[in-house]
Amino acid sequence: MADKQATAQFKIGEKVTIGGNQPFVLIAGPCVIESEQLVMETAEKLKEITTKLEIPLIFKASFDKANRTALGSFRGGGQEDGLRILAKVKQEFKLPLLTDIHHPEQAGPVGEVVDVLQIPAFLCRQTDLLVAAAATPKVVNIKKGQFLAPWDMKNVVEKVSQSGNERILVTERGTSFGYNNLVVDLTGLVELRKIGYPVVFDGTHSVQKPGGQGTSTGGNREYVEYLSRAAAAVGIDALFLETHPDPDRALSDGPNMVKLDALEELLKMVKGIDLYIKDGGQ
What we know:
By secondary structure, the chain is α/β, with parallel strands linked by helices. The chain is built from eight helices and 15 strands.
């Protein structure tokens, strides 16, 4: 990647630098805030792993999953309690934070706690949401809709940049491929890179089977390793992985989350590939 087009580079929080041919950043955490204990234990383990491997970390957890398959699906404890828990993670572990927003009015208060406001894939063309996120001083991570071509994201990104915010991440998370299935076109990472902002690969949502279990989403977590390695070989600025101590008992997205104990070995492989590519194969 040393001789390829470098993306924009900026800092997230005090210590994380992303883009510009820097080593990849890990964005990781549980899908949803199930409990304070789960979040704190996961954050502690993630910091331990990434400190050992010298990988920059942004902690991720959602206080609300507003796009669940069924009405009765667990969504989280809500904004107030979720932000309290996330603030505790930042205070105790000194990590930058990422979480989703679903409504324009959430951007301001959520941005007071977290460092990255994430726009869910299904909402990536919602102009009011994008403009509200852009109005904060926070980084905006836009997930590419499963229904969009990579080059279509240029118009999405411009809604944020033309609203005065150039601190943008663009995330690939798979493309709809018939019913209840996604496929990853790795050339899409190349196309997203042409837009000029740091590119994130979401290795866990890319293996989802949307609605594949009837009243919930299925997935194939065994493929996360392979897709993550392949994405690193193409060239990415960050890797997004949802992880959980016991994914089979998780309250959201369990089938596609990586088991926390398996994360270190996966990251070792991705780091090796990332360094090789960005050093020009030296």
